[in-house]
Amino acid sequence: MATQNTEVHDATAYLQKATGNKKYNIGMVLGSGFSNLIELLQADLVLPYGEIPRFPKTNVKGHSGRMHFGKIGDTSTMIMQGRFHFYEGHDIRTLALPIRVMRAMGVETLILTNAAGSINKSFVPGDLMIIEDHLNLSFSNPLAGTDPTKFGVQFPDTSGIYTPELIALGRETANSLSLSFQQGVYVFTTGPNYETPAEIRMMRKLGGDAVGMSTFPEALAASHAGMKVFGLSMISNFGSGMSDQTLNHDEVVATMETIKEKVALFFRDLIAAI
Amino acid sequence: MGLTAQEIQKKIPNLPSIGLILGSGLGDLADQINSAVEIPYADIDGFPTLTIKGHQGALVIGELSGKTVVAMRGRSHYYEHRDMKKIAFAVRFMKHLGIGKLIVTNACGGINPALYPGALMIISDHINLMGDNPLIGPNRDDEGPRFPDMSEPYADSLRKIARACGKELGINLTEGIYTAVSGPYYFSGAELKMVRYMGSDTIGMSTVPEVIVANQIGLEVLGISCVTDMAIPESLQPLSHEEVVAVAQQTKPQFIALVESIIKHF
Prior knowledge:
heterodimer; A: Rossmann fold; 5-stranded mixed barrel; B: alpha/beta; Rossmann fold; 5-stranded mixed beta barrel; 7 helices; 31% helix
């Protein structure tokens, strides 16, 4: 089996050839309901993950799985439309692969988006949350069981994993658009089942504000590889036991439709300011 | 090649509507099943066999309180193989045999000081601290949703029946939250404090994977814990599996009476 070093090398070599050795400054990962952000990009090239050597495949409804290359404003950007999730059955180390490829393509700042359930009682579906920190409740992480020194240090510091300067910039950008937002701690679980009410209460006691099944592995891989990270959650549903509604994936997607245009403006301005 | 669900269905006069998973020391409930057909796990295609002493592994299918049930006498635990797929298989297999309701039982440690060794507790909710999940991997959409809702993992309607049965039998039934950890070691004092802080009343090494799968495939679930030891961090005593089984054995008459009554009222 190829080491991840080889996998990153093979994927990067292919992409460098496909893009004519262009460098990209910003990487984005579009989570559930953020697909419309692709419209910000003046794309030069779109590649299904299946065409990229060593890339795994996504198989979740609503996550189509393509890498886009182009510009947002003047900024060279590559965008992952559809991401790999731990609950799909991938080895969690695999989730670091595309992030490390983006780093190898020159990306210095990674923007992560996701849909999340609320934990904080003052949050409601449709709220945006700038991620200030995370809790990893999966008992797994993408660095263990690999040789992380191929991509970064052995023992990465995570004290400012969501880059404080970017959090400040995100706040300013949102304020300038009169876009209201929350800020808080994202709890990562394996999924794929939604949480029980007891688990939501536990997460609240532990200091979580929102919960989801992505983002942490990518943020860790990115930070480890020396990238700055900005994370934005959209609260798509009340945490289990916090309202009378049951949860389903279609509701998540529907909720997001309502504020997506303003979110697109937010990222346009944020990327211009980075 | 072992038996399939369809082949087992041909061996039994009536299809089971209720599944029972019998926890440590609680397997004797299977002896109450009339006209029982017993099928060792080892004879069933793909069924996980057991490795732990005191857990005899067989499906027991027959009549209990006027209903046809399938009981798992002995269960496969995560700590035996670290393979959630095996645990999921057993639950899906019982669904294929015909069940619509599942009663999951276990022996557990009591964290809430109001509990005591021998107490029976209806599980109201759970916390998964196993660090794994039986639904990780490709989903078969024909079996259940990719992202199952877990807002009511233990059916309110079944809990209500269980409470009424407990009352009728004069059993002091409590309700509370069960936390599952991988095991097989019993938690330390500091770890128990943490689990208590997280809001749990009991702790054990089973049940949660089965309940997650059962919810995904649309089974109604009732959970019953037999508290076999107190896991109070401030007064922790050395604990052995033999003691756990002994307390479960003492609670057996009450436990059997309760489950029989619940099944009658289902």
